[in-house]
């Protein structure tokens, strides 16, 4: 238990000591940082198993770290809590959730108090990129706004993003790291007296009388808004495969929360399933945290995320297996290896293509589901409601920010605070920012071998313009479209390297022939710190696809203090200079499969469709094949959806089994949602207990 998994050095994030406090795990003393998530304190101390499932007694740990599932349940000071949402306090006594604590003796009935009510023009649910941007717009227009978020710090997923954002410099701060964007938006909201922020507050339900129940720091409140803006974001999807219940199967958001928010390294060897931007970016973040990324599997023939994200991983030494799927996570209680296989055009695994890789963590990044419950509840109550960000449509954070502005203006107009329509140009820009990756063009190298010039390794049409925006000589221009066009070098480069520093894809290098035409200096951007670089030493340079070009001398290393990107100058032979994009940091041996393939013993019976109630995919599949298409009926027969998460996780998994069985989605009867968004002690709803109850 003395294992230290803290990250003590990071290329982008400041590593602050924080106040250390003592707490107890199953009676044994441990130390953690005051106020950090209890789950992070436990994982930092080497504890991954938080308890045992009541049905099969299998160990379980975290999956989402966002309060949406119930895998991180522990007993803290005699109360069952979600450890990912519980701040660590000094002296806290924490026990594994192997069994619920004994009920206290019945005493006097708690006093039922009147629940305070707050009236406001607008209630925004969620202080992520969309909610913050909407709040800024509403505050600017003088609209009284209450912004509610269940985290202690506003920013949503922005606080997890160490990379630089794509999109438009003017409209979504492209070229700036997500953590800085989140901080700027939060500061703008905090400075506006017309916007009130409630952190550590969870919206529970929008009632039929148009009042909204909010659990604020343990105390129950009712908010009476004129309009609701749902910017609650999304929850992560999972997959049905044998071993999906093992400790070490993480959602991408949970993994990024640990490594980027809490600076905890939960893994040594990571495998990723899912080649969208979330999975690709999480892999990059893992390497920044000093974790070996063994590989990434994507079921489609090409990664769905931006090519520059996939290229970054390949260049660092991470194999990307397209047209592959996960067959199983293997291990007794936690992940010890993962088995993947190639799939055909109908996504069926091809026999004989199986490979097993040793790893301790499997990161599942297969998409998101909008948290749309509040929108539906408000509509049912007849309360005017808008949605923005992932709660409306899954897209990039740059799109969420801009759509948050649009939603803020639309809400203000509905309240009569402004008569102005949403500008048509805004709507057009919003469509561009959420554009899916476009076609990939062949690489075009600039002509000539004199002076200094940028070489652009961005070959796919994506919404991004920082390089053309920042160039002081206007030498980089976007062809055909000012946001979606491919960047081309057309002009006179002065060697300032601003384009290298701002490029979110690290897809620009600088070739300088001025001092040595035969062995020019190639400058590449670099955002790692765990691999030491010595001037005079050598690194293995690679091309755009990660193919080795040779070992070349490091001529200089320059750290940009503002941007936090290092510029590494390599001395490269003239024939290869324009092809060099980066250098490898992971050895090829790190990604080799095991000599023997591991196969799941129990197949469908070891794949969970409901992780809380331990309902197997085999049970659900049997009912579907018997003709049942009503998720409520499946719930009644198997208990799938009756666990502590309230069906938030298993609904997607059960639907995926319907899809595998070829059932038309229109025939599926959806499951009935629980009344409250999260569980809450009944006494709290009566007004008893909770911090701030005396306000």
List keywords for this structure.
695 residues, Ubiquitin-like (UB roll), FAD/NAD(P)-binding domain, 16 helices
What does this structure look like?
With 695 residues, this protein is of the alpha/beta class. It folds into five domains: 1-102, 2Fe-2S iron-sulphur cluster binding domain, sarcosine oxidase, alpha subunit, N-terminal domain (Ubiquitin-like (UB roll)), CATH 3.10.20.440; 117-234 and 370-433, 3-Layer(bba) Sandwich (FAD/NAD(P)-binding domain); 244-252 and 260-366, FAD/NAD(P)-binding domain (3-Layer(bba) Sandwich), CATH 3.50.50.60; 452-591, no CATH class; 606-695, Arc Repressor Mutant, subunit A (Orthogonal Bundle), CATH 1.10.10. Helices cover 21% and strands 24% of the residues. It has 16 helices and 35 strands. Strands 8, 9, 10, 11, 12, 13 and 24 form a seven-stranded mixed β-sheet that branches. The protein is globular. The chain starts with 19 loop residues before the first strand and ends in a 10-residue tail after the last helix.
* Main beta sheet strand tally, sense and closure: 7 strands, mixed
Mean pLDDT: 93
Judged by helices, strands and strand pairing, the structural class is: alpha/beta
According to DSSP, the number of beta strands is: 35
Q: Could you outline the blueprint of secondary structure elements for this entry?
A:
Layout: E1 20-25, E2 28-33, H1 38-44, E3 51-52, E4 59-60, E5 73-76, E6 79-82, E7 93-96, E8 117-125, H2 129-140, E9 145-148, H3 169-172, H4 178-190, E10 195-198, E11 201-206, E12 212-216, E13 219-230, E14 234-236, E15 249-251, H5 252-261, E16 269-273, H6 277-288, E17 292-298, H7 307-316, E18 320-322, E19 324-330, E20 337-342, E21 355-358, E22 361-364, E23 368-370, H8 373-381, E24 385-387, H9 397-414, H10 424-433, E25 452-456, H11 466-470, E26 476-478, E27 487-489, H12 498-502, E28 508-512, E29 521-526, E30 538-542, E31 548-559, E32 566-571, E33 582-583, E34 608-610, E35 615-616, H13 617-625, H14 631-638, H15 650-660, H16 682-685
Parallel strand pairs: 1-7, 8-9, 8-13, 9-10, 13-24, 15-22, 16-17, 16-22, 17-18
Antiparallel strand pairs: 1-2, 3-4, 5-6, 5-7, 11-12, 12-13, 14-23, 19-20, 20-21, 25-28, 26-27, 28-29, 29-32, 30-31, 30-33, 31-32, 34-35
């Amino acid at each position: 238990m003395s294992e230290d998994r803290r990250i003590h050095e990071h290329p982008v994030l400041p590593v602050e000591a924080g106040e250390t406090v003592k707490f107890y795990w199953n009676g044994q003393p441990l130390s953690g940082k005051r106020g950090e998530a209890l789950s992070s304190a436990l994982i930092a101390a080497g504890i991954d198993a938080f308890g045992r499932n009541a049905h099969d007694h299998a160990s379980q740990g975290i999956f989402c770290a966002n309060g949406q599932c119930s895998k991180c349940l522990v007993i803290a000071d005699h109360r069952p809590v979600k450890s990912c949402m519980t701040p660590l306090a000094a002296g806290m006594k924490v026990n594994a959730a192997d069994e619920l604590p004994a009920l206290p003796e019945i005493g006097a009935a708690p006093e039922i108090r009147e629940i305070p009510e707050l009236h406001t023009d607008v209630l925004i649910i969620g202080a992520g990129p969309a909610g913050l941007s909407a709040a800024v717009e509403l505050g600017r227009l003088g609209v009284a706004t209450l912004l509610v978020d269940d985290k202690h710090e506003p920013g949503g997923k922005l606080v997890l993003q160490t990379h630089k954002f794509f999109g438009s410099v003017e409209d979504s701060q492209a070229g700036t790291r997500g953590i800085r964007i989140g901080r700027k938006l939060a500061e703008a909201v905090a400075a506006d007296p017309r916007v009130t922020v409630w952190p550590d507050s969870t919206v529970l339900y929008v009632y039929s009388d148009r009042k909204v129940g909010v659990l604020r720091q343990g105390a129950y409140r009712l908010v009476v808004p004129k309009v609701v803006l749902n910017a609650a974001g999304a929850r992560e999807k999972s997959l049905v495969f044998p071993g999906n219940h093992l400790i070490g199967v993480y959602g991408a958001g949970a993994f990024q929360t640990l490594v980027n928010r809490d600076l905890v390294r939960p893994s040594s060897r990571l495998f990723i399933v899912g080649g969208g931007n979330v999975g690709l970016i999480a892999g990059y973040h893992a390497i920044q945290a000093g974790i070996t990324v063994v590989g990434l599997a994507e079921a489609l023939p090409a990664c769905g995320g931006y090519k520059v994200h996939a290229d970054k991983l390949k260049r660092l030494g991470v194999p990307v297996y397209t047209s592959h799927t996960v067959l199983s996570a293997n291990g007794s209680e936690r992940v010890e290896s993962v088995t993947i296989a190639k799939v055909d055009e109908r996504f069926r695994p091809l026999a004989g293509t199986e490979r097993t890789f040793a790893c301790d963590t499997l990161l599942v990044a297969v998409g998101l589901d909008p948290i749309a419950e509040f929108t539906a509840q408000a509509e049912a109550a007849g309360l005017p409601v808008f949605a923005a960000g992932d709660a409306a449509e899954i897209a990039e954070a740059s799109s969420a920010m801009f759509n948050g502005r649009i939603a803020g203006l639309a809400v203000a107009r509905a309240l009569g605070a402004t008569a102005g329509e949403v500008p048509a140009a805004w709507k057009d820009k919003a469509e561009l920012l959420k554009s899916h990756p476009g076609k990939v063009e062949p690489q075009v190298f600039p002509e000539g071998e004199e002076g200094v010039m940028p070489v652009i390794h961005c070959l796919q049409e994506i919404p991004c313009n920082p390089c053309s925006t920042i160039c002081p000589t206007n030498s980089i221009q976007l062809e055909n479209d000012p946001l979606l066009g491919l960047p081309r070098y057309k002009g006179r480069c002065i060697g300032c390297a601003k384009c290298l520093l701002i490029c979110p894809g690290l897809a620009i290098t600088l070739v300088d022939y001025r001092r040595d035409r035969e062995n020019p200096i190639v400058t590449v951007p670099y955002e790692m710190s765990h691999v030491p670089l010595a001037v005079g030493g050598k690194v293995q340079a690679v091309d755009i696809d990660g193919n080795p070009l040779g070992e070349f001398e490091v001529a200089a290393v320059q750290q940009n203090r503002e941007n936090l990107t290092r510029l590494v100058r390599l001395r490269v032979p003239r024939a290869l200079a324009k092809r060099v994009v980066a250098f490898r940091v992971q050895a090829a041996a790190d990604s080799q499969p095991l000599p023997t393939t591991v196969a799941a013993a129990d197949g469908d019976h070891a794949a969970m469709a409901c992780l809380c109630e331990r309902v197997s995919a085999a049970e659900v599949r049997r009912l579907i094949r018997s003709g049942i298409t009503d998720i409520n009926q499946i719930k009644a027969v198997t208990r799938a959806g009756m666990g502590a998460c309230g069906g938030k996780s298993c609904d997607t998994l059960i639907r995926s089994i319907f899809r595998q069985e070829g059932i038309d989605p229109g025939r599926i009867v959806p499951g009935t949602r629980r009344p409250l968004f999260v569980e809450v002690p009944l006494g709290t709803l009566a007004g008893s207990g909770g911090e701030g109850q005396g306000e």
